[in-house]
Design a protein that fits this description.
Elements: E1 9-13, H1 18-29, E2 34-36, H2 48-58, E3 62-65, H3 73-78, H4 80-100, E4 105-109, H5 138-158, E5 162-167, E6 169-171, H6 184-197, E7 202-206, E8 212-213, E9 215-217, H7 218-231, E10 238-240, E11 246-247, H8 248-259, E12 264-268, H9 283-288, H10 296-309, H11 311-318
Parallel strand pairs: 1-2, 1-3, 3-4, 4-5, 5-10, 6-9, 7-12
Antiparallel strand pairs: 8-11
Helix pairs in contact: 1-7, 2-4, 4-5, 6-8, 8-10
Bound molecules: guanosine-5'-diphosphate-beta-L-fucopyranose.
Length: 322
């Protein structure tokens, strides 16, 4: 089978998002010459005819399918129709077009919320579809599971080299800082930052503070995606994480210490906790020779530096107080 090379035609579907922009950065740093992208205005990935036309015109050889409607616990709970509709369509159109137009290899990105809410920890890949899902993100998780099954089905029926990676919760430069849709690290970073700027010493953290989460810096994820694109070609999806987790209370203290040392954390148990824990078992990826590099404290500090450097844009786009 052909190998991805710096002169390959590589389509990053979802290049403007947290993951897609990290993959583009990574490909550029490895001097890839033909990175194909399309904005939402240029290509509606939910439209099969438009996606087919785009593939016919642009002939990508490798595809990173990291596009989708994503968000944190609040967005998932309040916009379930968008989360299931957009994602099911985007996964189906891109996978189908990749098959029709002879893509050499496609990497599909899922999410750790595909696993049953109560499954044993750490979570092995084989635990997929062994129990009920976490209700706050079930529609999104069903779409993500459908994406894995699409890749497996096209592999079985048509011999396509389509693989899937399941990342744990992500964060990093380029994250979404809109409180209605952000994930916890971006949400807390913004809230502690604005409290400090406004001279406020109490900061609210949603839920009970007891759920446990694992976090992976998005540059590590981009590295893992390229690693798998180069070296993995089998049906079973691959977990991507650090293998370490902490409580949301501990995370909040870590963000506080970096952004607004001394502030008091106030829990709001009226907000949803979501899954009690979702720690991935990353032993298969470790056995292949990949391990994450960025520790959580360094990663949060790095993301906060990026946040401060981009305050102008963030203020214009979603009203961050500088
Ligand atoms: O990051 P988050 O929204 O994603 O929330 P999930 C993680 C935990 O942080 C939850 C708590 O227990 C939240 O209650 N949390 C505390 C906060 N303060 C905040 C806050 O200000 N904002 C947010 N957003 N959370 C999502 C799923 O689940 O994670 C998706 O809904 C997807 O399907 C994604 O899988 C990775 O880990 O709960």
């Amino acid at each position: 089978m052909a190998q991805i090379q710096p002169d390959s035609r590589v389509f990053v579907a979802g290049h403007a998002g947290l993951v897609g922009s990290a993959i583009v950065r990574r490909l550029r740093s490895e001097r890839f010459t033909t990175i194909l992208t399309a904005t939402r205005e240029q290509l509606d990935l939910r439209d099969q005819a438009a996606v087919n036309y785009w593939f016919k015109a642009n002939r990508p050889e490798y595809v990173f399918l990291v596009a989708g409607t994503v968000g944190g616990i609040w967005a998932n709970s309040t916009r379930p129709a968008e989360f299931i509709y957009d994602n099911m369509l985007i996964h189906a159109t891109v996978v189908h077009a990749a098959h029709l137009y002879g893509v050499a290899k496609l990497l599909y990105l899922g999410s750790s919320c595909i696993y049953p809410r109560e499954c044993p920890q750490p979570i092995r890949e084989e635990y997929l579809l062994t129990g009920p899902l976490e209700p706050t993100n079930e529609p999104y998780a069903v779409a993500k599971i459908a994406g894995i099954k699409l890749c497996q089905a096209y592999r079985r029926q048509y011999g396509c080299h389509f693989i899937s990676a399941m990342p744990t919760n992500l964060y990093g430069p380029g994250d979404n800082f809109d409180p209605r849709s952000s994930h916890v690290i971006a949400a807390l970073m913004r809230r502690f930052h604005e409290a400090r700027v406004n001279g406020v010493d109490q900061v609210t953290v949603w839920g009970t503070g007891t759920p446990r989460r694992e976090f992976l810096h998005v540059d590590d994820l981009a590295d893992a995606c390229l690693f798998l694109m180069r070296g993995y070609d089998a049906e079973l999806h691959v977990n991507v994480g650090t293998g370490q987790d902490q409580t949301i209370g501990e995370l909040a203290a870590l963000v506080r210490d970096i952004v607004h040392p001394g502030a008091e954390i106030v829990l709001d148990p009226g907000k949803p906790d979501g899954a009690p824990r979702k720690l991935l078992d990353v032993s298969r990826l470790h056995a292949m020779g990949w391990c994450h590099k960025v520790g959580l404290r360094d990663g949060v500090a790095d993301t906060y530096r990026w946040f401060c450097e981009h305050l102008g844009e963030l203020r214009r786009e979603n009203g961050v107080v500088a």
